Amino acid sequence: MHNRPSLYERKILLGVTGSISAYKSCDLVRLLRKEGAQVQVVLTADAARFVAPLTLATLSGREVYTDLFPAANESGDWTRHVSLGLWADALLIAPATAQTIARMAHGFADSLLAATVLSASCPVLVCPAMDRDMYQNAAIQANLTTLKAHGHQVMPADHGELASGLIGQGRLPAAEAITDRLKSLLGVGPGPLSGKTALVTAGPTREPLDPVRVLTNPSTGTMGYALAAALAKRGATVSLVSGPTALDPPAGVQTTRVGTAAEMRDAVLARRSADIIFMAAAVSDYAPAHVSKQKRKKGKAPVSLALHPTPDILLELAKVRSPSQIVVGFAMETDRGEQQARKKLSNKQLDWIVLNNLSDPGAGFGVHTNRVTVFSADGACRELPLMDKRAVAESLLDIILVQGK
Ligand code: CTP
Q1: Which of 279, 316, 336 to mutate to test the pocket of ligand 1 (most atoms within 8 A of CB)?
Q2: Residue 93, phi then psi, degrees to nearest 5
Q3: Ligand 1 within 6 A of 344 CB?
Q4: What's the gap in Å between 98 CA and the centre of ligand 1?
Q5: Which pLDDT belongs to residue 71?
Q6: Most buried residue, 94, 183, 363, 382, by most Cβ within 10 Å?
Q7: Is the pTM of this model over 0.85?
Q8: pLDDT category, 78, cuts 50, 70, 90?
Q9: What is the DSSP letter of 258?
Q10: Would you state the torsion angle of the CA atoms of residues 57, 62, 65, 69, taken in this order, to the nearest 10 degrees?
């Protein structure tokens, strides 16, 4: 049987904005069409200075739209931003200029593309392209963070030679890479991590004291589940080892539920050959030394409990891991966060550690947002702003797997 291309009949709305890399949108349109997609191009007025509407209309096989309003002497369609938003399965903005990114971050509706972004309810992928220092500018980075917080995906710009002659980050990624990212956003095709295996731990552990009481912590598992879902969406074969949580297993992820740290250890070591390992579980460091078979009855005298350390799963993993694996740990601290995180990074032979500071409002247990800082074994440090945990997961994958080693 003839295999259908992976974007067969997918409706892709491609917004092209005024960057020199707009010429690459021609290649992108060709590739998307080759993959079976229907492509509708919306150009900003500035983009039309770099690439002719006729070129994109010919390549896409559709009229290219630019204006929000019909010309004064025409009684055309002025609700096109609404119909385009309803039509699209995905909205791809490539290249996205600083101006368009700022418009989107602040909800402006002053061009057909900007208004369409506001009315579209489909997934949105933004591919920034600009010069090196513009890309690093704090205002741009803050706007990109806002876009992620609004649920849009942002594909990091490539590093290399820029139109100005400078070398740095800011290039529009290749059409193939953008198409792969779009496919993973739509859940089709192999995805950039296809062929890779990943292991994620999530949630608390629960150490019994007697048949009705446990020693545990308030972890809800949200961060680990978001990571497992994000890895699967990018094509990895994902195993999730989860302590007790109220969350549904993420789609397409093989989920194993465990109770105690010892059970989690066995489940993790059985899957230790994974290419990528994220240890996001909040493992109980101690378990009651004696588990009573019967319910312990209350009395009037104070009670002391003997506690035994649980296995340090990550430390055990460190002893058997191979250098080709990417192992990422988490640290949850209340004080001297960076110092503690760096110590764990080296003690547990991690490639990266993700630090949450429990004293940060909006970060840590039981909230949907997180503010993390990531440290790498070779000294890199990236501080991410407060974001939804799903956006944190996407950013971590971008930093660790796309820009990392
Ligand atoms: N971890 C683990 N097994 C344990 C304890 C922790 O695998 N028994 C993992 C966590 O999943 C996390 C990392 O180790 O990725 C750091 O966990 P954390 O509790 O912050 O560090 P500890 O080494 O337990 O140090 P401490 O509690 O003293 O801060």
Answers
A1: 279
A2: -115, 105
A3: yes
A4: 41
A5: 74
A6: 94
A7: no
A8: confident
A9: -
A10: 140
Distances in Å between the alpha carbon of 285 and those of 20, 124, 218, 280, 347?
55, 41, 14, 14, 16
Is the CB–ligand 1 distance for residue 89 below 6 Å? no
Is 73 one of the annotated active-site residues of the chain? no
Catalytic residue chosen out of the listed positions 217, 356, 357, 370: 217
Q: Is the dihedral of CA 403, 230, 138, 158 positive or negative?
A: positive
Determine whether the shortest distance from the Cβ of 225 to ligand 1 is under 6 A: no
- Centre of ligand 1 from the C-alpha of residue 236, in Å: 25
Is 405 a residue whose pLDDT tops 50?
A: no
CB-based contact 51:23 (threshold 8 Å): yes
Asked if omega into 208 is within 30° of 0 (cis), the reply is: no
What is the chain's mean pLDDT, rounded?
Answer: 93
The atom number, within ligand 1, closest to the CA of 328 reads 15
Rg (CA), the chain: 24
* Sequence-ordered strand ranges (E) for 135-236: 153-154, 158-161, 167-171, 197-202, 207-210, 213-215
* Mean of pLDDT values over 232-249: 94
DSSP line for 73-96? T----S-HHHHHHHH-SEEEEEEE
Closest alpha carbon to 259 in 245, 240, 248: 245
pLDDT band at residue 60 under the 50/70/90 scheme: very high
CB of 12 within 8 A of CB of 40?
yes
Secondary structure string (H, E, C) spanning 92-123: EEEEECHHHHHHHHCCCCCCHHHHHHHHCCCC
List the residue whose alpha carbon is closest to atom 24 of ligand 1: 285
Q: Is the CB of 283 under 6 A from ligand 1?
A: yes
Atom of ligand 1 nearest to the CA of 332: 20
Instruction: List 276's β-bridge partners, or say none.
Output: 198, 326
Cα angle value 176/177/180 (rounded, 5°): 85
